[in-house]
Amino acid sequence: QVQLVQSGDEVKGPGASVTISCKASGYTFVNYGITWVRQAPGQGLQWMGRISPFNGNTNYAQNFQGRITMTTHTSTTTVYMNLRSLRSDDRAVYYCAREIAVTGTVGIYFFDYWGQGTRVTVSS
Amino acid sequence: QSVLTQPPSVSAAPGQTVTIPCSGSSSNIGSDYVFWYRHLPGTAPKLLIYENNKRPSGIPDRFSGSKSGASATLGISGLQTEDEADYYCGSWDTSLSVGVFGGGTRLTVL
Question: Given an 8 Å threshold on Cβ–Cβ distance, is A110 in contact with B33?
Answer without folding.
Answer: yes
